Amino acid sequence: MKLLPASSGDLIADRRADYAEMLFADGEHGAAAELMLGALELAPGWAMGWFRLGEFQEAAGAPAEAERAWRMVLKLEPADRPGAALKLELIGAAPAADAPPSAFVETLFDQYAEKFDDALVKTLRYRGPELIAEAIHAAAPGRRFSHAVDLGCGTGLMGERLRPFVGHLEGHDISAAMLKKAGARKVYDRLVKSDLQRLALETRSADLITAADVFIYVGALERVVATVGSALLPGGLFAFSVERHDGPQDFTLRGTRRYAHSEDYVRRILAKADMKIIALSADTIRMDRAEPVAGLFVLASSFGGFANG
Prior knowledge:
- The chain is built from twelve helices and nine strands.
- It has helices spanning 11-25, 29-42, 47-59, 63-76, 84-90, 102-112, 116-123, 128-139, 157-162, 176-185, 222-231, 263-272, and strands at 145-151, 166-173, 190-193, 206-211, 232-244, 251-253, 259-261, 275-288, 291-302.
- α2 runs antiparallel to α3 (47-59), α3 (47-59) packs antiparallel against α4 and α4 packs antiparallel against α5.
- Residues 305-309 have low confidence and may be disordered.
């Protein structure tokens, strides 16, 4: 997918936008919004500029103005690569959605691919693949899997953990840039560009499916979990993580534009997909703004027998 332009295409507008960013970084939110609005008068078709204007206006305590800016993004960019619809939802200007715009997720990770590993592992101390692999080994010590599918494989961090005990390893991701990075690791036998909101897997084809820190960009999980349940062989394992949500809703969109899911919801959708939980633990997935992000790590088995070895 074509990346979002960082430039407006107008030199003077870009300079004003740069100054606006400096003001915003210094806490001058209202002044930043005013200057960015001036930049957009010169470059009115710049969707990313309107998106940033909305963020400046929101920070300045002007949600109505932010709403207008984000609605302009959707007019200019109907696929919504910047993720304006999520911002509108978060300020209560749009109804809650079951999933983010696919174009937003794809663009996010296409842009993030080059710095993904350093940012996630070194800066955010991401532990998802490690904890998922540990859960698999604890439940099935010594077991080798003939066909594993790594959903949302990213650059291949989970794949590296799976490779030693998997025969055929398949990775799926929405981002072509991420898949290129995963391919360079040379741990996957097959890589597939796919959107988890429209995931298709061959029925009764895999004995292990993983999804490490992926469902935060899915929202409602009924469809993808049902697909996983149909794809697993009897006794096959499904190992995944979610950000933990302790409120009454099944899932919620957070200010980070990521979704968190409740334990009760996870249990219900697994049961509906004919899977039983073998292990469920609460742990920190990663850090975010120096704060730990609480997660749930889940290992489930498809009905039809579960045996180690």
